[in-house]
Amino acid sequence: MNYKLLTPGPLTTSDTVKAVMNVDHCTWDQEYKDITQEIRAELLCLAEVSETDYTSILMQGSGTFGVESVMSSMLLPTDHLLICTNGAYGRRLKEMAEYANLRYTLYEVAEDKIPDPKAVRAVIAAEPTISAIAMVHSETTSGILNDLEAIAQIAKEKNLLLIVDAMSSFGGIPLNVAELGIDFLVSSSNKCIQGVPGFSFVIARKKELEKRKGHAHSLSLDLYAQYEEMNHDGKWRFTSPTHTVLAFQQALKELQAEGGIEARYARYASNNQLLRDEMAKLGYEAVIKEHQGPFITSFYYPENGNFTFQPFYDYLKEHGFVIYPGKISELNCFRIGNIGEIYRTDIEQLLVVMKAYTEENNDN
Ligand SMILES: *Cc1c(COP(=O)(O)O)cnc(C)c1O
Questions:
Q1: What are the pLDDT digits (tens) for 159-174?
Q2: Cα 197 to middle of ligand 1, angstroms
Q3: Does the structural domain 260-363 have CATH classification 3.30.1330.10?
Q4: Known binding-site residue numbers for substrate
Q5: Is the pTM here over 0.90, yes or no?
Q6: Does the 19-257 domain belong in CATH 3.40.640.10?
Q7: Where along the chain do its domains lie?
Q8: Beta-carbon neighbour count of residue 3 at 10 Å?
């Protein structure tokens, strides 16, 4: 059955994005390598960085592979990393640090709060060996949007390397990577750019990339090695997800056609607002009260006591929508994403279905 994905990725893509995958492409072919180069250049434009200072590197695998390529190959034995976390993806950064035997300090806050810039300053003051910060921008666990600007400002002032997991935000909200002074930003093909799953990408400051070569803990995730090969003529080191690459190129064209990141952000933000306003009227309380992002929203289970997720999920799916279970530890909630090829009419239709389910359920 055909349904719309109200999930944080993979998400609903356009028919035209899906259609371009009906071609089998050779990876050695110049035309294909040129597509890779075009994508890399376009990503730099979206990140608002210059080709002189920054490069973009595509990496096979899902988003986690891209984050781990940075975490496991761009930190020096002398580095001391501060990891800021308020959710599962922040905790994943910590797991990666452990696998790579990095020296790190963890600053963790509750999942419905953002890492506090003042507290970050205090941690850095107390531990002067800290040389780098890693954080998540949009924490998909809850839907909260962290204060990247404030943390980036601290990194700049203290001259710290800044690594940002912008997986579920890049392409869906304006971000001037150069101005923010981000050294490594990671996102993937199947989030706000609205492509299909298969690769991640890293926007990297060239100076740092060059300085950090030769420290990889993994062959396949060696970011510098991938850069070196790809930068030559657009050739990936190992088999690349060819169909995904074609779909991504098309998705980038469609982002342009929509009016760029500003226009996409406006669509996401207004659909998210509509969703939250109307869900509140139906009695569904949003978990995040402050700093809610425009991409995905966590809602508490309704209080009528007999709510269980599975029948609710099945009902919505039967009526054309797939949502996500909650991910916040020890909280009964579910999540609704609004990124992807999702328009106001889809949210309106979802709300009709949601209302019907809620009324039926309350009559029981
Ligand atoms: C989606 C996502 C990831 C990557 O998850 P994968 O399952 O590897 O694609 C990482 N961080 C955040 C914040 C995400 O939303």
A1: 999 999 999 999 999 9
A2: 11
A3: no
A4: 335
A5: yes
A6: yes
A7: 19-257, 260-363
A8: 13
